[in-house]
Structure prediction request, 179 residues.
Amino acid sequence: MKKKKDFKNYHRRYQAINRDKLKEYDKDYCKENKESIKLRKAKYYKKKKEEYHKRYLERKEQKRIKEMMDNYYRNNLTTVDIWGERKRENQKRYRKNRRIKIFNKFNGRCAYCGQKIKIENFEIDHKIPKIAGEKEIHEYKNLVPACKTCNSIKNNLTIEEFRSDFFKGKNKKFYFENT
Prediction:
């Protein structure tokens, strides 16, 4: 064990001291043995060709899928959070132009608390919950922008149930009722 360490240390010192000399030797060796090096590389590549090609195709496919997903989320849908994951499994996806209309409905404010929200991370909420099963659930007039907090608290509650929970029994109005 000690001999190995001594040899490694000696080898490192020798390489550090004779770096230029070793580079010259490598250049000379490559010039003299150009053909044999070329044959060795070709033989090795031929042996590993299928493996290289397989890896190349895998990387190409992964890159193509990533680009396709990025384009899809960039151009069509905006129910994607910052890290590129869907916000919720059950959230209906809306096209970008429809999300912008809903966002502008209350000038970039949450329909319930009135807090300013960013267009990248607001959520679309249904005033009449989806559980109600009415035909007009996904119509524009039923959709409002909401911050994550209000939307998660409201969940499947009706406006009256949410009002009693949100304002704790006080008779106050939501932001969308005041505008």
Residues 2-75 form one domain. The chain has two domains: 2-75, 96-178.
